[in-house]
Each structure stands twice: as C-alpha cells, then as structure tokens.
Protein: Acyltransferase
Organism: Streptomyces lutosisoli
Amino acid sequence: MPKSKNTFSSWRRRLAQRAVHAGWAWVQRTGAVTAEHPGRLRFGAIGTHTRLAFPLGTVFGEPWIHLGSHCIVAEQVTLTAGLMPDLDLGPDPILRIGDGVVLGRGSHVIADTTVTIGSDCYFGPYVYVTSTNHSYDDPHQPIGKQWPRMEPVEIGPGCWIGTGAVILPGARIGRNVVVAAGAVVRGAVPDHSVVAGAPARVVRRWDPVEGWQPPLRTPAPVPIPDGVTPEQLLALSGLDEEAAARLAELDLDAEGASGDIRAES
C-alpha cells in the first residue's frame, strides 16, 4: 500500500533547498576574487575582468603571481609560488599568466621556479603544471626527504591543454599546441602541433605547404559569417520550438515549390 505523501513536509524541503542554493550562490559571488575585490590575497598583479571562482584551491606566494586581464580561474584551482608560504622569492614574478587564460576546475599550477603561461590558453579540468620534480638519487633516503629538481616551464600562447594533462618541469610548449587529455609532457613541443600519450609525443603537425599532417579526419567548423551581430545571434538562440518548427515548414514549402517548378519545366 503506497504511503501517503506529507505535502507540508515536501513544501518545507523545497523551500529549504531553494534557500540553500540561493545562499550558496551568494557565497560564490561574494567569495570570488577580482582586482576590485581581492580579499586577503595580494597578487603581484591582477588584470581587469579577471575572476577567481570561490571556493579557491591552495593559494600562496601571491606577491610573485602575476595574472593578466580577462582570465577565468575556476573553482578549487591551486596557484602557488615558492616551495612554501612566507618565503622571499626576490624582485621578479615566479608565476606569470597571460591575458585571456582559462584554468579549469581543480587544476594545479605549482611554480617553485619560473612558470609562464601565454595569453589565450585554455586548460581543461584537473590539469597539473609543475616546475618541480622529486629526486631519488640516494637509494637510502625516503624520496620525499630528498631535495627536488626544479626547471622552468613555458607554455606558449593559444594552447589547449586537455583534461588531466600533466606538464612536467622543463617543458617548453610552443604556440597553438593541443595537448591531449591525460598526456604527460616533458621537453620541447613545436608550434602548431598535437601531442598525446605518456610520455607525450607529436601525433600531428601543421606544415605551411601541406597543411595538417596527417590530414584532419573531420572538416573544419564553419565560422560565423561576417557581419552577423551579437544581437542576431542572441535572437537565433532565443527561438522557441514553435518558431523553429515554423521555419522548418517554410523551408519544406520552399523546397516543394521549387520541385514543382522544375517538374513543370
């Protein structure tokens, strides 16, 4: 026999749920870090329209972290400069992030020595970039107690770094490079290439004469035509199902009419 539903209890639960969601949205808006509202964080530089979502990951050494403008740093992203907090790292920035960079949720950028990320780079979730690697030279000492090795990391502008990729110390990634999800990158990566695997290797490159080699298996996306305004795009995206169905009917009517004309001729 089905149990009777407690309407009052269900109504209270929905109300409480809405209140919790509204409260959490307010916390996220208020806790976000921007140049105008940095909170306790004092970055060496933070550009206009850059936003670090709340809740943050681990952040320290911020005086040696320079963030460009129009960056999006998602939730739980860790940004660190130096091996530990409260170190004096000298006059120059350690971690430089260019304009228009997007760091996906849960990513880590660990800059114990110089790490540079070029403008317009996009990181998927849970990308790990580090300038430090554990050493294991002494077989008699725990690896965690041995002094680590550090090498600068450089990621060129316009790169796409896939979900879960790992960028190791000494990596020098060129311009407009695609790093596949889960790849482990070390060493130099040439401009306009695609790398995948662990360790990552080049699987596709752009040649000025022959284009992409091996050739792309899917056609390039059709760009938005010149002259289309943002307002027109918004109007198209706002079409409801009835309007879309009406447009489809008009297209079918036009095709039918043209077919009749061809048949008569």
Residues 223-265 form one domain. The chain has a mean pLDDT of 88.
